[in-house]
Amino acid sequence: MNAIIEMDNIRNNVNGSGIFIQVGAGAGDLDKRANCRDGFTEFIKSLPRDRIRKIILVEPNPMNIHLLRECWKDYPEASIYEYAIVPNNILTETIEFYYCKNDSPNYQVASIKKEHVQMHYPNDEIDLMNIPTKTIERFFKEAIGNDMIELLSLDIEGIDAEILLDLPINLNIKFLSFEYIHLREKEKDVNNFLTLNKYNFLGMGVDYNGFDKLYIKE
Questions:
Q1: Alpha helices in 12-135 (DSSP H)
Q2: How many CB atoms lie within 10 A of CB 121?
Q3: Which three-class secondary structure state does DSSP give residue 53?
Q4: How many domains does the chain have?
Q5: I need a surface site. Which of 33, 90, 125, 207 has the fewest CB within 10 A?
Q6: At CA 72, angle to CA 145 and CA 58, rounded to 5?
Q7: pLDDT in tens, 176-185
Q8: What is the DSSP letter of 47?
Q9: 106 located within any domain
Q10: Looking at the domain assignment, is residue 120 inside a domain?
């Protein structure tokens, strides 16, 4: 499968809503440890400007926000939300956010799940900070309302499955790209959820490493 070819499904969707969302935006295309590459950012910046209505970026790590703003400074369509998207059963307004200093400067595996960070850095000290939260349902209600989403990209470091399974059933998402490598025992539940909600597998999603799967709603 070729990610460029699969993403052309979205590029050629000329009658789309022009609303693009990235949950887990990191530092955009300014993370030097990722060779200044980010699949979502590269794809959106490759689109004609008249295809873009809104770019909604969610990034919980305050240490990434300055670079994320710099990344999208030429796009007035872009809005940055500085909180963690959490499943609907997490009702606290803040949550502990874990990271490893050896993952600096952009902390690619920081997560609200300590064990996710420990899996990548088993012999290192894990630090934490408290960050604000927003449930997935409340986020979409406040940021999108009833608008159709052309592309939702999820990379949420350890809770991708929980967020996918909590997506509101009335949410209108045309294309869905998410990191599948950490779904583990919940992969079957995710596949059943997508099938039930009429999503068809297209191939590789936005991640340039091939860690994402791309789906389209019938």
A1: 39-46, 65-71, 114-120
A2: 15
A3: coil
A4: 1
A5: 125
A6: 40
A7: 999 998 898 9
A8: S
A9: no
A10: no
